Amino acid sequence: MQPAHLAVSPFMDSLVDWRSDWAWGLPLIVFTVVIHVCGLLIISDRVDRVHNAMAARYSDNVLFVMVIAVTTLLATGLHWFEAMIWATAFVRLGALNDDSTAVLYSLSAMTTYGHADLYLSRRWQLLGAMEALNGMLLFGLTTAVLFGIIQQARQVRSAKRRRG
């Protein structure tokens, strides 16, 4: 009969192997979330300014579509930049061999698409799952900002209708 501590040994061995993943993954998650929040604040500020400057020239519907389009474009660029941070880490750590493969893998992991037939080296596989977790957080933040912009546009439209 095996002692209880030996029964969990394979799991504990895996945890030891994952220390590097956690040591790299957690700071990458925090770093990209901070970048994302700062980027979304800048985007929101710019969108408000553009909206206020163009409100008299365009109908509410045209202005709304323009604001959503620009916000989506800028947020997509922000997600791309954050995926590049992860891709750079994958290449520097030796988890992937080249930049183009790392970019494809990173975008696939971040979006949780996961369909690209690419794999991190075995030692770094948990890091890929951590990027997927990061992507969910980042896309959730982006969704919240887009929802806020939609709500704001509806409030402006309702206020205009009440005024006449």
Automatic annotation (TrEMBL):
The chain crosses the membrane at residues 22-42, 62-81, 132-150. Keywords: Membrane, Transmembrane, Transmembrane helix. This is Ion transport 2 domain protein. It comes from Solibacter usitatus (strain Ellin6076).
